[in-house]
Amino acid sequence: MTNVMLSASNILNGFKLAGREFHPDSTVIDVDGIKIGDGSLVIMAGPCAVESRAQLLETAALIQASGAQFLRGGAFKPRTSPYSFQGLKHKGLQYLAEAREATGLKIITEVTEADLVDDVLACTDILQIGARNMQNFHLLQAVGRSDKPVMLKRGMSATIDEWLYAAEYILNEGNSRVILCERGIRTFEDYTRNTLDLSAVAAVKQLSHLPVIVDPSHSTGRWELVAAMSKASIAAGADGLIIEVHPDPMKARCDGPQSLNPDNYRNLMSDLLKLSAFIRTELH
Amino acid sequence: MTNVMLSASNILNGFKLAGREFHPDSTVIDVDGIKIGDGSLVIMAGPCAVESRAQLLETAALIQASGAQFLRGGAFKPRTSPYSFQGLKHKGLQYLAEAREATGLKIITEVTEADLVDDVLACTDILQIGARNMQNFHLLQAVGRSDKPVMLKRGMSATIDEWLYAAEYILNEGNSRVILCERGIRTFEDYTRNTLDLSAVAAVKQLSHLPVIVDPSHSTGRWELVAAMSKASIAAGADGLIIEVHPDPMKARCDGPQSLNPDNYRNLMSDLLKLSAFIRTELH
Amino acid sequence: MTNVMLSASNILNGFKLAGREFHPDSTVIDVDGIKIGDGSLVIMAGPCAVESRAQLLETAALIQASGAQFLRGGAFKPRTSPYSFQGLKHKGLQYLAEAREATGLKIITEVTEADLVDDVLACTDILQIGARNMQNFHLLQAVGRSDKPVMLKRGMSATIDEWLYAAEYILNEGNSRVILCERGIRTFEDYTRNTLDLSAVAAVKQLSHLPVIVDPSHSTGRWELVAAMSKASIAAGADGLIIEVHPDPMKARCDGPQSLNPDNYRNLMSDLLKLSAFIRTELH
Amino acid sequence: MTNVMLSASNILNGFKLAGREFHPDSTVIDVDGIKIGDGSLVIMAGPCAVESRAQLLETAALIQASGAQFLRGGAFKPRTSPYSFQGLKHKGLQYLAEAREATGLKIITEVTEADLVDDVLACTDILQIGARNMQNFHLLQAVGRSDKPVMLKRGMSATIDEWLYAAEYILNEGNSRVILCERGIRTFEDYTRNTLDLSAVAAVKQLSHLPVIVDPSHSTGRWELVAAMSKASIAAGADGLIIEVHPDPMKARCDGPQSLNPDNYRNLMSDLLKLSAFIRTELH
After folding, report:
1. What whole-number distance in Å separates Cα of residue D11 and Cα of residue B188?
2. Which residues of C touch B184 (CB under 8 A)?
3. CB pair distance less than 8 Å for D185 and C187
4. What are the pLDDT digits (tens) for D222-260?
5. How many domains does chain A have?
C-alpha cells in the first residue's frame, strides 16, 4: 500500500533509536534471566499501591505461586488531589525489597522524580515511568542514564509518535532497555476509565523494535473487564501484561474497583499461559 | 464490587429489551441455519463496495473457499463528499443476489434510508445500519419492522449506552434479531482511522444479551493491523468479524488501504478458525 | 504562512459550492426580510421542545418582546431512548404556526426525516437539521430540494471538512441558502455536555462564505454558562445565536438545566445587542 | 437548577483552597503593581522561544509600545523530539532579564524542572508551568514554595477538576498567587492544533476565585485564528491573554505558523483594549 508506507515512514521521520528501520530485530530485554520481548509471556502483577508489609507479602506469595515473574506495587503514588494517599514512599520501597528477597520475584515500581531515581533503583528491577510523566523530559533523561530497564507508560493523550519520541529521550541517554506500556487513552467514552488502544500495540510492534506491555487494569478501571482485555492484549501481540491484584479489593486504598481478587487472578493466569503458548506455537 | 454494580445498573436504567437483566441468556440469532452468538465464529468478508459483477463474483468465490459464512459488500455507500463514488445502488444489490446464488454465502449489506428497506431486504440476509445512521431513529424503526436480522454499527462518537439505546429502538418495533458491531470510535489518535474499542465489546457482552461483531478494517483503516485486531477481537469475546477483502486492494474504488489481499486473508482465516476453537474449548 | 495556506487549501480540495474560493463574498440569507450573514445579529430563541400551546405562546411573547427574530422549538425530538418524550409532532408544528401568526416571529424547527419535509415546511421559515442527522445524506438531499433555508448543525464528532461536505450535499441539490450551526463537539471533558468549538466558527468563516450560528445551550448543557458563551460567540465572529429559553426551566420536559429563565434571557439579550453593535462599528 | 448545583458541588468535593466556596471574592494578583484578576486586561506577548538577543530585544520593544504588560519567551523549551531545538536555556534567561531592564516589561517564562526554579526565579516575574507538566507534582510543589506568582497551563487532556487540583498542589504549599491558563485540549478535530475550550474559562471563573488567562496561539496553532479567539476569550470572561508574536514568523525556530507578525499584533492590541473597556463598563 503506497500511501500506508508513506504514512508509516512519515511518523518515523526523526527517530534514530526507537524505530524498526534502525534496528530491524525485536529488542529482547534481559532482567536477570527473565526475557521480555522474546515471544514468551511476561506477567507483572500486584497491588496498585504498597499499603502495608502484610498486604504486600501476602500478595507477593500469591503472585509467585501463579507463575508471574514480576511483582508490581507503587511506593510513590502520583494522585490527582494533594489530599489523597500518596503512597508509603521509602517505607514502601523497603517492603518491595523485602518481598523480592522472600519470593525471588523481580520488582517493578514507579519513580516520579529525578532526585528519587537512585533510591528507587536500589529496590527495583525495572523503573516505571507513569502516564502523567511521559513527557517529563528531565525525568526521562535521568532514567536514561541509569543502568536498569525502564517501562514507559503512554500518556493519557499521547499519540503513538509522541510516545515513541519519549522513548527516544531515554534511549538517547544511553539506556537501550526501554519497554513500552499501553494503558489506555482518554476519550469521550466513560463507561471505562480510559479506552484501551490495542491497535496502538499492534502498530508499535511494527513501527518499533521495543517490547510492549499492556495494562488492562488502569485502562478499563473495572476488574470484570480485565480477563477479556488481558487475552485480547496477548492476541494483539503484546509481550506481557501488568495486572492489579489485591488480597481484598473492597479494602484497597486505591483503585479497588479495577483490582482482581486472588481467585479471579489465578483463573486468569491459567488461561493466559495456555493462550500465549497456543498463539506462539500454532498461529502464523 | 458494589460501585461497579451500581454503575452497570445505572447505565441500564431505562432498557427494557437490550439489557441482560431482562434476558439473562445470550441471544443466538439463526440466519437460515447459520448461528450468531452461540460461541462459534462468524466471518463476514468482502469488498467495501460492490464495484462490478466480476469483482464481486471473484471475491465471493474466495470468501466461500475460506470457510466464511457471509459475503459483505456495499451497494449504497454513504460518503463524506457528494462527489465521491456512491455505490452501484440497485445494480449492486442485484450482483449481491447473484453472488449468493452462485456461492451459497449469506449476504450482509447496508441500508441507508427507510424507503430502500424493501429493496435491500430482497437481496440480503442481514440488514446493516452504518455508523453514521446509528441514531437515524426513523431508519431504526423501519428495520425494526422488517423480518430479517439487523447489524447495528456503533456511531463514531456513541457511548455504550447510546449504542444500546439505538438497539432498543429496533427491538422495540418487534425485531428481536439485533447484532451489535463495534467499528472504532473517534479519538485524537490519527495513526489509525479510528480507535478500536475492544473494552466496549467485553462490556457489551456483560451488559447485553445481543451478539457482537467487530470490524477491524474500518476501525484501523490499515490492512497491516487487521490480523492482529481480528485475533484480539476473538480473544475479547466477539462473536464474529466483518473484514474487508479485495482481489486487488491497490485498485479498490474505496478503502483500499484497509483491505486485505487474498493471500493475507486466507492466512488470517486459518488462524482465526484455530484460535476460536482453542478459546472455546480450552479456556475458562 | 505558506504551510497554513496549503493546509487550508487541502481541506477545501473537492468543494465546489461551500468554499470561499468559489464564492468570495459572504452569503447573506434573506428570510422574508430578516438578513442572516450581513453583519447584524440574529437571535433564535425558545424552548427545547414545544410542550403545550400555552408554554409555546407564553415563550413566544417573551421572545418577541426581547427583540429576537426567530422562535425555536422542537416538534419532532430525536431522543437517545425510545421511551423518552419524542415531541408533540404535528400538533407541535401547529402551535409553532400559531405562534408565528400571533407574534410575527419567524420559525425555525427541526425536520428528522425526508418524508416529513413537506409537513414541516408548511409551518417553518428555516428547516433545522440536527447534529445526529448531519450525515443523513438522504435527508440532506431532501432539504436541498426544498425552497426554504436550512440550518445544518455540526455533528457531535464531525470535523470541519465533514461539516462543510454535508453542507455541500444540500447546496448541490440547488438550495443555496444553507446556514451552519456550531453546537459543541464530543470530547473527554464532561463538566460541560459538549465542548463548544469557537475556533471552528472562526475557521469556517474563513473557509466558507456561509453564515454561522452558535448554540451555547446544547454545547454547554448548563444555563449558567450560556451568557458568557453567547458573548464569546459574537466576538468570535458568529452571525447569530440559537438559545434555549423556558418560562420555568425546572418544569421543562427536556433540557431544563440548559435553559435560561425569562429574566436571565432578557438581561442577556440587552448585552448581546450592545456587544454586537460595538464590535460591528468599533473594531477592525 | 438543583442538579447543576449538585454537580458543581461534586466537582469541588475535596478542594480546600482553589474553590470559590472557600474564597468567595476573586483573587487579584499583584505583580509589582500590575494587577491580574481585577477586571482589567492583562496581555502577555512575545515569541514562542527566545532565539537570540536581537530577536528578543526587537520583540520586547514592539510589545512595550503596544501597551502589553508582560513579555513572554521560552528559555527552556520542552519538545516532543530530543533532537528539536530545546531553547537557549540560561543564556535565554539572561536575555529575558536584559529585555526587562531595557523596557520595564514584566517577564513570564516556563520552568521545566524543580532544580531550575531558583535560576528561573532570578529572571522572571511569573513562573509558567507548561501543559505537559500540569501533573508533575514534584514541580508543582517546588513552585508552590517560591515567592513569585505561578501561571499553570491546563494539561492537554486534563478535566477541569484535575486542573483545579493541580492548582491546589501549588496553593497547598503556601503560594497563593496562582493564575490558570487555558491553552486548548486534545480532541479529534485536527484543523486546529488543539481545541480551545472557552466554556472551561467561564466554568472556572464560577468554580474558582483564581484568575484565568487564555493562550489563543498554542490552542489554535494558526495565526489567522488568533484575533477572533482573543476577542472571544475576553468576552468569555478571561482576565488576560498570552499571545505569540514574532518579528518574522516565517523565520521562527518554533511555532511560526501560530505567531502574529508585528502589524497584525498591533491591530489586535488596539481592538482588545477597546473591547475589554467596553465589556467592563457597558455590559452586565
Report:
1. 25
2. none
3. yes
4. 999 999 999 999 999 999 999 999 999 999 988 889 999
5. 1
Instruction: Write out chain A in H/E/C secondary structure.
Output: CHHHHHHHHHHHCCCCCCEHHHCCCCCCEEECCEEECCCCCEEEEECCECCCHHHHHHHHHHHHHHCCCEEECECCCCCCCCCCCCCCCHHHHHHHHHHHHHHCCEEEEECCCHHHHHHHHCCCCEEEECHHHCCCHHHHHHHHCCCCCEEEECCCCCCHHHHHHHHHHHHCCCCCCEEEEECCECCCCCCCCCECCHHHHHHHHHHECCCEEECHHHHHCCHHHHHHHHHHHHHHCCCEEEEEECCCHHHCCCCHHHCECHHHHHHHHHHHHHHHHHHHHHCC
Q: Is residue B5 included in any domain, yes or no?
A: no
Q: Which amino acid is at D246?
A: H
Q: Residue C9 falls within a domain, yes or no?
A: no
CB within 8 Å: A81 and D172: no
- For residues B53 and D7, what is the distance between their CA atoms, to the nearest angstrom? 58
Among all chains, which residue has been given the C-alpha cell 536581537?
A: D54
Question: Is the pLDDT assigned to residue A8 strictly greater than 50?
Answer: no
pLDDT score of A254 more than 90: no
Residue B266: CB atoms within 10 Å: 15
Q: Does A10 have pLDDT greater than 50?
A: no
Q: Give A215 to chain C, closest Cα distance, Å.
A: 20
The pairing of beta strand D106-110 with beta strand D126-129: parallel
Contacts of A190 in chain C (CB under 8 A): 190
Best of B185, B186, B198, B214 to disrupt the A interface (most A CBs within 10 Å) is: B198
Residue pLDDT, tens place only, A99-141: 999 999 999 999 999 999 999 999 999 999 999 999 999 999 9
pLDDT-wise least confident of A238-242, B9-13, C130-134, C179-183 = B9-13
Q: Has residue D85 been placed in a domain? A: yes
Nearest to B269 by CA among B239, B217, B238, B231: B231
- For A279, list phi and psi in degrees, rounded to 5: -65, -40
What stretches in chain B show pLDDT beneath 70? 1-13
Gap from D195 CA to chain C (nearest CA, Å): 7
Q: Which pLDDT belongs to residue C13? A: 58
Best CA proximity match to A277, nearest among A31, A36, A25, A39 = A39
> Does residue C8 belong to any structural domain of this protein?
no
Alpha helices in D28-89 (DSSP H): 53-66
C-beta atoms of D225 and C237 within 8 A = no
| Per-residue pLDDT tens over the stretch C227-284 | 999 999 999 999 999 999 999 999 998 888 999 999 999 999 999 999 999 999 999 8
CATH number at residue C259: 3.20.20.70
Q: Average pLDDT over chain B, rounded to whole? A: 94
Q: How far is it between the farthest Cα atoms of chain D? A: 58
**Measured between CB atoms, which of D14, D133, D169 is closest to A136?**
D133
Position A2 pLDDT exceeds 50? no
Interface ipTM = 0.95
User: Which subunits sit against A, judged by 3+ Cβ pairs under 8 A?
Assistant: B, C, D
Amino acid identity at D207:
L
Domain that holds residue D123: 27-282
Chain A residues with CB-CB distance to C under 8 A?
186-188, 190
Taking contacts as CB-CB distances below 8 angstroms, the residues of chain C near B157 are 156-157, 186
What is residue C115's three-state secondary structure?
A: helix
pLDDT over threshold 50, residue A146: yes
Query: Residue B43: in which H helix or E strand, if any?
Result: strand B42-46
The per-residue pLDDT for D119 is: 98
Find the helix or strand (DSSP H, E) in which D178 lies: strand D178-182
Cell of C205: 468563516
Mark yes or no for CB contact B186/D188 under 8 Å: yes
Q: CB distance C199–D192 less than 8 Å?
A: yes
